[in-house]
Design a protein that fits this description.
The protein is α+β, with helices and mostly antiparallel strands. The protein is 37% helix and 18% strand.
């Protein structure tokens, strides 16, 4: 038997995510900037010409140059949208991850938890993640050192998170996390944010052929794309709109997913967040209807 989920809430979450994507698209086209559908959103564009039917969020990527330019125009976001930077929790003293987000403020999580309180309610909304593409050295040793340092910085930041679930990690990783967390308590989070950004931009502006997602979580830091795939873009239909995707989106999806056209088992075709999200239209939340 397949799990039940709230189809109305799923549709509301998808519609709100699409609104965010279209707002990013509007600003980028106005100023000649490039964004790229990424991860499951890119997969949905290629495989379904829109959202993966059971997906309830959206992701985009930008090269560092495009993201820094986009930040300058954040005040042009329409009412109800805002750009949330990762160092904006408690004046940069708390850590969630290194990912900027476009927040859809006319939404909320149904339960206001201690975790939401820890992050000052700023994550109590639906959002679209922005993953940043930075240069990575062509030299294998320098490449490995750069990614290792990114993982260390992430680990040192984890004591500033609301909580850590040890069950998410293998036994060997639990030990590494424990050591890094112990060390990280002596570091100020503001310095770690600066260290992560400094490392991320270190190889930009140089003639390296490849880019990596410098603010992915550690288990996805291996994802690497050719510079030309992401500095150049094309467009694909997405929910009856034409949105920007990497020029060589096939190769990007292979890097992230392998055989990306293979559907997951039916029991895994299930939304991750939408049952916890209310999206407001004219002040009215979604109605709870199960399929």
């Amino acid at each position: 038997m397949l799990p039940l989920y709230n189809t109305v809430r799923l549709k509301e979450a998808q519609d709100a995510s699409l609104e965010i994507l279209l707002e990013v698209d509007r600003i980028c086209r106005k100023h000649g900037l490039t964004y790229l559908l990424d991860s499951g959103t890119l997969l949905g564009a290629v495989r379904h010409k829109g959202f993966i039917p059971w997906d309830d969020d959206a992701d985009i990527a930008m090269t560092r140059e495009n993201f820094e330019a986009f930040k300058k125009y954040k005040n042009e976001l329409r009412d109800g949208f805002s750009l949330l930077m990762p160092d904006e929790f408690a004046e940069g003293t708390r850590f969630y991850d290194f990912t900027p987000r476009i927040i859809y403020r006319d939404s909320r999580r149904r339960a206001y938890t201690d975790e939401q309180e820890y992050y000052e309610g700023k994550l109590n909304h639906l959002w679209v993640d922005i993953f940043i593409l930075d240069g990575i050295p062509d030299c294998k040793m320098s490449d490995s050192i750069t990614r290792f340092r990114q993982k260390v910085i992430y680990g040192l930041s984890m004591p500033k998170r609301f909580g850590i679930d040890p069950e998410k990690y293998s036994k060997s990783d639990r030990f590494r996390v424990k050591v890094l967390c112990a060390m990280g308590k002596s570091f100020k989070m503001q310095k770690l944010f600066k260290a992560q950004e400094k490392l991320s931009i270190k190889y930009n502006g140089k003639k390296h052929k490849r880019l990596y997602y410098s603010n992915y979580q550690p288990d996805y830091l291996h994802c690497t794309v050719m510079r030309s795939w992401s500095e150049n873009h094309t467009e694909l239909p997405f929910e009856d709109h034409m949105l920007m995707v990497p020029e060589n989106y096939d190769e990007v999806l292979k890097v992230i997913y392998g055989d990306y056209m293979q559907l997951p088992p039916e029991e895994k075709r299930y939304p991750s967040h939408s049952d916890d999200i209310e999206v407001f239209k004219d002040g009215k939340p979604a109605e709870p209807i199960l399929r």
